[in-house]
Amino acid sequence: LSGAGHDAALWLRLPPGAGREARFPAAWLRDNCPCPQCRDPVTGQRLLDLAAAPDARLAEVAIRDGEVAVTFGPDGHRSVFPRAWLAAHALDAPAPAGPRAEDGKALWTAAGLARVPAAGWARYAADDAVRAGVLEAVLARGAAVLHGVPAVPGMVTAVAATLGYVRETNYGRLFDVRAGPRPANLASTCREIGPHTDNPYRDPVPTVQLLHCLRDAADGGDTLLTDGFAAAAALRERDPRSFQVLTATPWPFGYQDAVTELRACQPLIGTDPCGRIREVRFNARSMLPLRGPAGQVAAAYAAYLAWARLLRGPGLAVRLRLAPGDCLILDNTRILHARTAFTVPGGSADADSAGGGRHLQGCYADLDGMESTLAVLRRAAAGGP
Ligand code: FE2
User: Fold this and answer.
1) pTM for the structure as a whole
2) Å from CA of 130 to ligand 1 middle
């Protein structure tokens, strides 16, 4: 034991007799009491209302048989912690890398990524290990392709259900990407579309996007993918001032049509509290006029242009061609996607009346659901419940 009052802490040698000493503050120990009064034995959820309990201090500690029994003052509450549990939760142990921030990822450029990770749909659907491998690839590299997904309308939502939950939006549970008459969106033309993330005008953005190819174009319509985390890390290296400005400048985005009006305002590069890259959003089509003191706006534009020029520079984007049955799964907080211009049959933009043409179906899902699916698959593979 050391200290007194709020500063009181338990010092333990972990493992017994070893040189390493771990320190556990009294409030932390009280909050993590595993007794059935403090934690529901069935759900494992906390019952204790720490704020309603008296400020904990350590009154007595007894160590025996792999257990540490702590009696707290002033109320005499007693907690018994398995020593192995304390060892596993030692405060100075390195925290596991968060699943979102850059340090848990394998960043890549086109030169470093031989090909986008891929698997066949039949094996993915039948074999949990293959599915876990694909989800791991999406989390580590930001993208994966499933080949041989039946090229039938609506199938993209069935793929989403294998990794998490469809995020329904104003575009519906799924949306069609094909050239048509009177397009409401540039996606519904046969024009080139530059690198972008989807829906930056939402808060939160959909964090996973799926794109399923039902028909490909006779000519053009290739897909380009860029690792936005690798690009942001390169900007931080080459132009730290621009990086800093982009992480600190909320930029307004918007979308509207007859029945929808969406607005969001977030930095183009988002960092976590430790300053690590956590998300990028980039979509010139839906940026709204930036406001603020003129000097700051000018600095923000200088940073934005540095970022935009870096993103379209050589060597970053990997190019692939989606064939009918291919379903691309993207981390929409990280990977920018683009497409080349394509031709439509007969030269008409009215794909339906022309009887064909490039047709993708997309839907959104979220990374938290995908991380959960992967964690459960790993738990089952390890023989857990
Ligand atoms: Fe898009």
Assistant:
1) 0.91
2) 27
- Residue 256 exposure: Cα atoms within 13 Å on the Cβ side: 5
Q: How far is the CA of 337 from the centre of ligand 1 (A)?
A: 6
**Distance between Cα 188 and ligand 1 center (Å):** 11
What mean pLDDT do residues 206-230 have? Answer: 96
* Cis preceding-peptide flag for 181 (omega within 30 of 0): no
Specify the pLDDT at position 180. Answer: 84
Q: Is the separation of the CB atoms in 66 and 84 below 8 Å?
A: yes
Residues with CB under 5 A from ligand 1 (ion): 198
Task: Tell how far CA 119 is from the center of its chain.
Answer: 21
Expressed in angstroms and rounded, the spacing between residue 53 Cα and the centre of ligand 1 is 51
Neighbouring C-beta atoms of residue 275, cutoff 10 Å: 11
198 C-alpha vs ligand 1 centroid, how far in Å?
5
Residue 335, strand partner residues:
227
What spacing in Å lies between the alpha carbon of 201 and ligand 1's midpoint? 13
From ligand 1's centre to the CA of 210, what distance in Å? 10
Reply yes or no: is the peptide bond before residue 34 cis, omega within 30 of 0. Answer: no
- Report CA(141)–ligand 1 centroid distance (Å): 18
196 CA distance to ligand 1 middle (Å): 6
What whole-number distance in Å separates Cα of residue 120 and Cα of residue 150? 11
CA–centroid distance, residue 313 to ligand 1 (Å):
19
Angle at 366 between CA 365 and CA 370, to 5 degrees: 105
Q: Is the model more confident about 3 or about 74?
A: 74
Among all chains, which residue has been given the structure tokens 């956590």? 278
- Ligand 1 center from residue 38 Cα (angstroms): 48
* 327 Cα to the center of ligand 1, angstroms: 14
Higher pLDDT, residue 243 or 63: 243
Inter-helix orientation angle 294-311/228-238, to 10°:
120
